[in-house]
Design brief:
- By secondary structure, the chain is of the alpha/beta class.
- It folds into 2 domains: 5-182 and 230-249, 3-Layer(aba) Sandwich (Stationary-phase Survival Protein Sure Homolog, Chain: A); 186-228, no CATH class.
- It is 27% helix and 22% strand.
- A 9-stranded mixed beta sheet has the order 3-4-2-1-5-6-7-11-8, with helices on both faces.
- The longest helix is centred in the middle third of the chain and has 13 residues, at 139-151.
- It is globular, with a radius of gyration of 22 Å.
Length: 282
Amino acid sequence: MSDLRVLLTNDDGIDSPGLAALYEELRAVADVTVVAPADNQSGVGRSRSRAVDVDDHEWGYAVHGTPADCAAYALGGLDDEFDLVVSGCNLGPNCGEYLLGHSGTVGAAVEAAYLGAPALAVSAYHRDDFFPPQGIAFSVPAAVTRELVERLPGSGVFDSADYLSLNSPIEAHGKLRVTEPLADYAVDVRDATESEREQHDGDLRLENDYWARLDQPDRYPVLEEAADSYPAWSDRAAVVDGDVSLSPLRIPQEAVTTPAVDDLVATYNEEASIGAPAADDD
């Protein structure tokens, strides 16, 4: 057994085929403990619970909570120490800055990074259907993950990056590319249709626009039709090209130093009356 200790989690739930594929691949090169949500937690981002129930599982533990709960419980509540946290394999790509914040797969990696553990978030996409069709195997992204995990110890990658976001085709793939998440997002607010009101219990539809729609009727584009929509350095461009996207990232909320903020604070302190001591009438 390898000395490498891996914590494996996801957001699609502990019974998902993507997690099973990663488990089978990674346990060939690492000591793997699974701590994953008991049910599907897609799209919950970095949400955390104040309390969770935990059940034993043949591979580790099933947590009745979010992916971030799983990372917190494993890293703070288990006696084991882990060299790497792997989250996935997600059903569908996670590309672009805004979508990364929505993703429970990435949320587990971010939680791990805040707790001082290097992490890898793994997502899979299908070249033709965007989301992998029902019943398709995750062997390709799982093998890509194993190859990376084998190379990460001693690589120095986590000397500067806190976590990695990986997007792999579900079938044969091109090259591995270093990418950056694209800052490209819009929202369409419109009246909901009758069926949407029944399904979502609301009169207004807030439709997120993560990808260039190119006048297509579906929420996600046919990837070939989006070929010229994204800069070559972006994670979305790599997905469109059928390559494996690897984005090295730091945990968010990075402080910004700017003279404009300094001037704003100075002006406020000189001129604002809010918070000033009350004048003495005597």
